[in-house]
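Listing S7. Sequence submitted for prediction.
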Amino acid sequence: MEHAMLLPMHMHRHRLVALLDLGSTSNFLSTDLLRSLWLSIDPCPMLRVLVANGDRVPCQGVARNVALTIDTEGFTIGCYGIELGEFDLILGVDFLRTLGPIL
């Protein structure tokens, strides 16, 4: 992903790499990390997420109020758990809204 914007970050003392995706409305965390970080999740068994290749993948639940740090700045976001392949986390427009108005 030569032109992708990747952000090194920390979540629960784990160093992760997030992909900043302007085409994504929500934030997504890998299901493996969702389990290994022992995040509290609300199940959403009927939810399927439309991904870039056109597939609909099942959502393992949503983790709310997840604390993360990028550089020295702290953020609290919600993340849907889905299989992400090579990424730990995808930050979408929901994350960008925490930075201020999107014009």
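Caption to Listing S7: primary sequence and predicted structure tokens for the chain studied. The chain has one domain: 5-93. The two ends are 26 Å apart (CA to CA).
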